[in-house]
């Protein structure tokens, strides 16, 4: 199924920073949603490879990795300030992706 069958869907290359140990697990088992975060439960990734390279922040000497992923998104919500009314509930309102501008 190509993207052409889904009007409004866009495809992006995105990055996920993690430890090498977790990268190997993700390769075997796939991504798992976090229980919480700035935008609530979900899988956190970035279109900015440099930003992804700074995660995770605390690694205790572990080797780091960046996973490159091709994703299709349909309904994207811009969350551009802390306390946005949909910040933690965008999925319940029909959005599949959040976009947080830099800074």
**Structure annotation, total helices:** 2
Form type: globular
User: From the alpha-carbon coordinates, what is the Rg to the nearest angstrom?
Assistant: 15 Å
Give the helices and strands as they follow along the chain: EHHEEE
> Residue share in helices?
10-25%
Number of strands: 4
Low-confidence stretches: none
Kindly report how far apart the N and C termini lie. Answer: 36 Å
Beta-strand fraction estimate: 25-35%
The CATH topology annotation reads as: Phosphoenolpyruvate Carboxykinase, domain 3
Largest sheet: 2 strands, antiparallel
**Number of discrete domains:** 1
Summed over residues and divided by their number, the pLDDT gives a mean of: 88
What is the name of the CATH class?
Alpha Beta
Helix/strand/pairing class, anyone?
A: alpha+beta
Named at the architecture level, the CATH assignment is Alpha-Beta Complex
Strand order of the largest sheet: 1-2
Give the structure's gist in a few sentences:
The chain is built from two helices and four strands; from the N terminus they run βααβββ.
List the helices and strands and how they pair.
Layout lengths: L9 E10 H10 L19 H4 L11 E10 L2 E3 L18 E3 L4
Parallel strand pairs: 3-4
Antiparallel strand pairs: 1-2
């Amino acid at each position: 199924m190509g993207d052409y069958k889904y009007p409004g869907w866009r495809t992006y290359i995105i990055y996920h920073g993690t430890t090498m140990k977790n990268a190997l697990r993700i390769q075997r088992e796939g991504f798992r949603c976090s229980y919480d975060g700035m935008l609530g439960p979900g899988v956190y990734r970035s279109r900015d490879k440099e930003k992804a390279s700074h995660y995770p922040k605390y690694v205790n000497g572990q080797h780091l990795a960046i996973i490159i992923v091709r994703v299709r998104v349909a309904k994207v919500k811009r969350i551009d300030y802390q306390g946005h009314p949909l910040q933690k509930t965008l999925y319940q309102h029909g959005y599949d992706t959040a976009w947080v501008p830099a800074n």
